[in-house]
Structure formats: C-alpha cells, structure tokens
Amino acid sequence: MSKELVLLKIGGSVITKKDEDIATVLERNVRRISKEIADAINERDFKLIIVHGAGPFGHIPANRYKLNNGLKNKKQISGFVKTHQSMERLNYKVVEILQENGLNAVAFQPSACGILKNRRLVCFPIDVMKRFIEIGIIPVSYGDVLLDEDTGINILSGDHLVPYIAEKLKADKIIMATDVKGIYDSDPKENKNARFIPEITSNNIKYIGIGNSRTMDVTGGMRRKVEELMRVAETGIEIRIVSGIDRGILKKALLGEHVGTVIKY
C-alpha cells in the first residue's frame, strides 16, 4: 500500500510578523511546527509537500512595485528581483529549521521553473516534485513572483499553488495551517461573536456567510478561496483548515484527527 500524500500550506501569518511593515520570521513558531511535523511522520509515515506563505517578505516589495499589475515599467524588474530575493530569505530559514528537526527538506523555487498565463499557473515541474517525494525528500515551495505569458510578470500565490500541486499529484489530503482555528463567518480577531464553521460542504456553502477572516491571505477574497478549495474537494481530496498557532493542533491534523474546519464535497 502506497504512503498517503499530504500537502501542507503554512500561512504567512503563522511564520512571520504579518501585521507589521517589517520582514521578521517567527522562528519559535517555525521550530514548533517543524517538531510537530517530525513527530507526526515518526508516528505515521507519509509523503509530504510543504508550501508556505509570504507575509511581509513578499507583500511589502510586491505592493511597493505593484507587481500584481503585470510588467508596466523598468522599475518593476528591480521589484521582481527584490521580491524574489526576499522570499528566498524566508524560504531558506524555514528549510533550515525543518532540517534541524531531522526532516529531509529542500527548497523548491517556483520562479526558476514555473510560468503563469494571466495569473494562472500553466507550467510547473510536477515530475521533479513527484520524484523528490518518491525518494523521501520534502519539497518546500512558496508564493513567488513568476514570468507571465500575458502580463510579463505576476504573482503566484501559495493559495493557488497548493490546489495545482494537489490535483496534479492526486494528493490524499490538504492541510492549511493558519492563524485561527478554521473558517469563521467573520474575522474572529475583530468580532468576538464570530461563528466558527466546523464543516463546509457543497450543500451548505451557499448558505454560509464567509467574512473577511484572516484564516487565509486576503488576496482574492475568502469566499473565492473557499470555493476554489471546494472545487478541489470534488476530486476526493480531503481539505482541512486548522490553527498553526495552537500547540499540537497541526500534529493532530497530520495524524488524521478531526480538528479545524473540513471542506468536503
């Protein structure tokens, strides 16, 4: 029986000081998460791919140079380079800490091998990633700036990369580690009466008021992201959105326990 393939997305708000206009890694969180991953793999061996968010490492330079508008002027070339360089620094630190916890993690740089077309990923070396996980290596990819066939350059969101990889490699499970415990009908950090939603299905999604929660990055809007995940769930992939902040929750999710919000068709 083949090992289960899990795709883990670690939100930028979990591993960086996302609310600040400086790029700082929350190393304590990365170390705890790395240990939970290592402990889970030791208890129940499975294949793993990690994608992490950008936080201020990507958002500050990308916004400054308006890279999400495509290539309009020469200054944006410098912005492309600075944004990628900043993301590499974050990725290097994440991979380094994963390795320190005994995980065979390697950086997987999207801008060196991926191409967008009107902001959608159309070229990505899935075969290379597949070979990595087959021999027991954990690829660690991230949101990045890429060449775009239509707009010259643009931003690849980690939230877009995750479902792309999951569908191509027929992952068994997607886990989204965020800074709250799951999906709410409004931002629980701003509304103490925000209602937690334990399960989203094709039957109830149209009746659920999904607010601008910080569960995932703001880009594209919460409802659109949930709807995209629902489309992925139609293929039979289990999707769970959990807290990457609360100790032990990620390990439970990796071991198959029922925590957070589950999205299923």
Major beta sheet summary: 8 strands, mixed
Low-confidence runs = 213-220
**How far is the first residue's CA from the last residue's CA?**
25 Å
Q: What's the β-strand tally? A: 14
CATH class: Alpha Beta
Task: From the 3D structure, determine the CATH topology.
Answer: Carbamate kinase
Features:
265 residues, alpha/beta, Carbamate kinase, four-stranded mixed beta sheet, 14 strands, globular
Please give the structural blueprint.
Blueprint: E1 5-10, H1 12-15, H2 27-43, E2 47-52, H3 56-64, H4 75-100, E3 105-107, E4 115-117, E5 120-123, H5 126-134, E6 138-142, E7 144-148, E8 152-156, H6 158-169, E9 173-178, E10 183-184, E11 196-197, E12 199-201, H7 222-233, E13 238-243, H8 249-254, E14 261-264
Parallel strand pairs: 1-2, 1-9, 2-6, 3-6, 4-7, 9-13, 12-14
Antiparallel strand pairs: 4-5, 7-8, 10-11, 13-14
Structure description:
With 265 residues, this protein is α/β, with parallel strands linked by helices. It contains 8 helices and 14 strands. Helix 3 (56-64) runs antiparallel to helix 4 and helix 6 runs parallel beside helix 7. The chain starts with a strand and ends with a strand.
